[in-house]
Task: structure prediction
Amino acid sequence: MNIFRTAILAAASTLALSVASAEAKTLTISWWGFNGEKLDQFIVKPFQEKCGCELVFETGNNADRLNKIKQRGGAGVDVAYFTDSYSQIGIEEGLFQKVDPAKIPNLAGLYDLAKDPQGGYGPAYTIGRVGIMYDEAKVKPITSWADLWREDLKASLSLPGITTTAGPMVVLLAGDKAGTDAFTNADPAFAEIEKIKPNVVKNYNTGSELVNLFSTGEVTASLAQDFVLGQLKKAVPTIKWADLPDAIATLNTVNIPKGAAEPELAHEFINFILDPKLQQTLAENGVDAPVATAVTLTPEQAVQWTYGADMIKNLKRIDYSKLNAAKGGWIERWNEIFGG
Result:
């Protein structure tokens, strides 16, 4: 065997090993699993084709999935989707690593709110709001958070359960109504929650439960996240999103656990889902609200989303470090009022 042929065989062998190694890579993603068919069509299959790798999934709610990552010491998955309240817990417990912005060039095209919401950890890939929904065929216009305490809403209101994403925000809003900061003095806030109790028919824990309460006419108003608005309007066309000047932002973030086996591929995946063309497709197909500024939607496409610079700049942010620290005590007091 001459030297030239030996070199060719060695190069071919190296290339074969490289290809085999790339094909053998597996990216493990922790997410909710909602919209499974659309996610498979728009994200999973295109990314697998792009990376030549395999995507596998761990599914479940925020609390269960975060607990699994904690039990494994930050290992077991490469990319984790969470609401920002839960990803903040993961950050404070040392479960996530900081991302390298240089490896996520699509960050540059995001709204500022989404680029780096948690100090160097994962970006937000979608954005939502907490506000008030009501049946305008049955309820006078609602224009402020304090309207939830109105007497005409007696026995017709649903509030989110205290362990849901939006639940603790009721305590903060009750504090605002009482003129106090619920983080430092929760007593006036819970006095206001006692006052609103006659209006509350039931606390809901899922979006489908809220849709059912409106559909059956048990409630006519609720504090809720906007992701349920489209489904709710299909069931009750007279549902209206209250035009509040200070709706609350809710972000969904993507993070890389500290024990990720494929951190480079994880960065590649995060950059992929922030591509403006994919963000446009996901918004048009009812999957997620966009965070890429280049996305343009018609009024009909945008109606269900938190969308556009003007809307996003007016959103109110929550300090989840303070909220997560306070939530344990709030849950106990909430359950004393509404029953646990």
Observations:
- The longest helix spans residues 3-24.
- The first strand starts at residue 26 and ends at 31.
- The mean pLDDT is 91.
